[in-house]
Amino acid sequence: MTLAYNESGQEAATESLTGRVLEGRYALGLPLGSGGMGTVYAARQIRLEREVAIKVLHPGFVRNTEAAARFLREAKLLSRIRHPNVIQLLDYGETDDGLLYCVMELLVGSDLEQLQARLPHGRMPWPGACDLLAQIADGLGAVHRRDIVHRDVKPSNCFVSFEAGNEPIVKLLDFGVARASRGDIGPALTQAGLLIGTPSHIAPELLRTQHPATPTSDIYSLGVVAYRLLSGRLPFFGDTMFSQMQAACFDEPDPLDDPDQDVPVELQEFVLKLLDKDPTQRPSDARAVAERFRVVAGRGTPSPLPFEFTAHAELDEPIAGNTVVAVPQPELHTPSPSPPPPSDPTLPMALSSQDSIEEFDLDELLIVARPWHADRRLWFIAALVLGVVGLTLLVALSDERTGPSPTSEAAPTENDGPRMLGRSRP
């Protein structure tokens, strides 16, 4: 069973589609992963006997026109791009009962976040990190040349494949929230005032304003990925999502001068340049960013990862209960506890539990990027509190003025009536 969300936002159970054949062409195997809107399956293209990956929109969204439009938009945008560092789209289709699916190349390896969790303290030696970062920048360059902004660059959307002689090849994944900056496909699907992306990786200018994302916004997110690879932590911390984003807007990241890593000063300065709060001060060309990473990497000694990924043998029956995706089993390392410790010390990345958020109301976040006195909601709350306090004082004063008036005589009772009348019995 896989968890999905229906149109009203309530959790709904979705039966696995393993074993189903789509349009007589694709036999679905086991699920490889699942998100809020779709599930990715290992599959086989029957006629060509080729292993592929198929992303299927959850059946609960079949009648959700906006979800279907987003799914089609993702496929159309991805179909524009042909580059070795971007996942390749092979096909798109719809079954007779309305299931939407897109067919992609099947990758062997792990996403960068899972890979990083297997490194000592979550840190990668800087020559190897530069190689991976250069490949991500190459993929972004191809995306940006097609006037597309990814809007969600993060380690879990960068897949590291080890198919070619165990040499890592990085592929950009998940274009579900990508958008063409010019000549966009179809109607706008994002409401005004909504911010798209992962909070810990969003560029600060998108938090301060409602301007659309740009290629330099993606380059900032790449800077966050670079900082994480080199330090094992996020550049900005906070006890909550809001305080973390406030730090991204106003604070400076700690330097990358860890003596254990011996990161070259040139690389430290370049990563901080990618994280500049002013988008005009960041590099604007992802290809130039890739070249800079390669120049720096060439000055170091290549250091292989402390484990290897080995693909399973090709399966005759991928739907028989096995998956064709390799899953490495190296020893997991405990992340470094400082500086400051993550909210969950068992996780290698601070605030990694918040990385699943992709769309949220900008009006709820603007308070972190502007002075308190500029927020009309705070003035309204303050006026309401003052009104309640004033009304309470007014009622209290009124009660004091209209209290019971003193009397010279108490009310007579049955036992002391004669005395209360002020005379003796005859």
Helix-strand layout with pairing:
Elements: E1 2-5, E2 11-14, E3 21-22, E4 26-34, E5 38-45, E6 50-57, H1 65-79, E7 89-94, E8 100-105, E9 109-111, H2 112-116, H3 126-145, E10 148-149, E11 158-164, E12 167-172, E13 179-180, E14 194-196, H4 204-208, H5 215-231, H6 241-250, H7 265-274, H8 286-297, E15 359-361, H9 376-401, H10 417-420
Antiparallel strand pairs: 1-2, 3-4, 4-5, 5-6, 6-8, 7-8, 9-11, 10-13, 11-12, 14-15
Notes on the structure:
The chain has a 6-stranded antiparallel beta sheet, covered by helices on one side. Helices cover 29% and strands 17% of the residues. Residues 1-13, 185-193, 310-374 and 416-426 have low confidence and may be disordered. Helix 3 (126-145) runs antiparallel to helix 5. The chain is globular and about 95 Å long. It folds into 3 domains: 1-106, Phosphorylase Kinase, domain 1; 108-364, Transferase(Phosphotransferase) domain 1 (Transferase(Phosphotransferase), domain 1); 373-397. It is α+β, with helices and mostly antiparallel strands. 37% of the residues are buried. The protein starts with a strand and ends in a 6-residue tail after the last helix. A hairpin with a 5-residue loop joins strand 1 and strand 2.
Q: Order of helices and strands, N to C?
A: EEEEEEHEEEHHEEEEEHHHHHEHH
In which range does the helix fraction lie? Answer: 25-40%
Oligomer: single chain
The largest sheet has its strands arranged as 3-4-5-6-8-7
In the CATH hierarchy, the architecture of the largest domain is: Orthogonal Bundle
- Output mean pLDDT: 75
Query: First CA to last CA: what distance?
Result: 99 Å
Unreliable spans: 1-13, 185-193, 310-374, 416-426
CATH superfamily of the largest domain: Transferase(Phosphotransferase) domain 1
How many domains?
A: 3
CATH topology of the largest domain: Transferase(Phosphotransferase), domain 1
The best one-word shape is globular
Structural class: alpha+beta
Total helical segments:
10
